[in-house]
Amino acid sequence: MSGPRSASGSRERGVITRRHFVGGGVAGSIAPPLIAQGPPARDPAGDFPITARGRAFLDTAYIGPMSTRAQRAAADFARAKAERPLEVGELLRGAERVRAKFARLINASPDEIGLLFSTAEGENVIAAGLDLRPGDNVVIDDLHYDTEFVLYRALERTRGIELRVARNRGGAAGVAAFAPLVDRRTRLLSVAWVSHRNGFRHDMRALADLAHAHGALLYADAIQAVGAIAIDVHATGVDSLCAGSYKWLFAGWGVAPFFVRREVIERLRLDRYGEMHASGAPETGFTIDPSARRFDYSSRAFGEVHVLDAALDHLAAIGIDRIEAHGVGLAHRLHAGAERLGLRCATPAGNRAPIVAIALPGPEDAAKAAFAVAGVEATVRAGHVRLAPAIFNTDADVDRAIEVLGRLARS
């Protein structure tokens, strides 16, 4: 899919396309600013080959680099497929390991995890599964990803539903923004757990309570959350989430773990079928798996599953709490640095996610050139720079980005 270029010249998925941020607003559920960096986990230079390039890679919100461990797994799978394709059975059995490891990462059961191909597929499965009817409505917010607007606007035309959009204030969309839009015909609240636009982290418990009080479900696009922050799906009450693995899970494309709460699984109508989720005689008496494996209807991207298996081991070895503290600490350092320069942040102060969007003090082309010359890789679009520090980043990486912003502010 075509899209605008990041500061490093790579293609970027949609980000910060809505210009009505006013910056600096603090939602009630957002923690006070944490300036101190979280403790480094392991040796980032040893874990991620990208750190050897001498550049500050602050663009994991666009594409996360593979760790050495995941890179080795990719090479092992390719070698096995090339040299002994009839003997890769063990590598093909990685799906159940991934299911269990992903479940542990978000505090779910393996039976609540399906394996899809992309985050967009997850939202489509939910929308199709709810069998939306004319007069039903879906509520999202303006910090959501572009796919949701395309999907639900299309369903307005084809199914007669209504899409309702909550508006952010100061870069935050709290439950109060959603509440007036939810009623007895609301079937689904859908949000990005962490927004790709400015990193805003939603209060999922409050949104779940709102949705459930009206008989609706809560779905989360969690591609910017899983692997970046600690998640407990049952404590938060979320009914379903999906997360592609090429960002904060530091794996590849083609596999997206899909959580559906056990009590919700059989409420979702299946709209696709295949032999992978069926047992018994296909011609006469097959049954469909009653667990979330029912959403795994076809052959998987087995190589990518194998890579994700290794990547999840890597995250577990570091520890998700340490990963969150480290990334959020660096994000707060960026936010504070931008404020010292007098720049407006589209990300609320104290936000507990490792993504910060900062309004540029001048033209985008000048900013892209300045970041490139300084060796800082970030996404520049719609008058903002989005910076996303990860576990392998350091104070020095963040300070290099702040120095670039300072030069731009003075020019």
Automatic annotation (TrEMBL):
Q: Which keywords does this chain's UniProt record carry?
A: Lyase, Pyridoxal phosphate
Matching entries from InterPro entries are given as:
Aminotrans_V_dom, PyrdxlP-dep_Trfase, PyrdxlP-dep_Trfase_major, PyrdxlP-dep_Trfase_small
Provide an example Pfam family for this protein.
Aminotran_5
Recorded GO molecular functions are: lyase activity
Q: Does the keyword Lyase apply?
A: yes
Where do the Aminotransferase class V domain residues begin and end?
A: 92-389
Enumerate the PANTHER family for this protein. BLR3095 PROTEIN, CYSTEINE DESULFURASE
Q: What is the name of the protein in this document?
A: Selenocysteine lyase/cysteine desulfurase
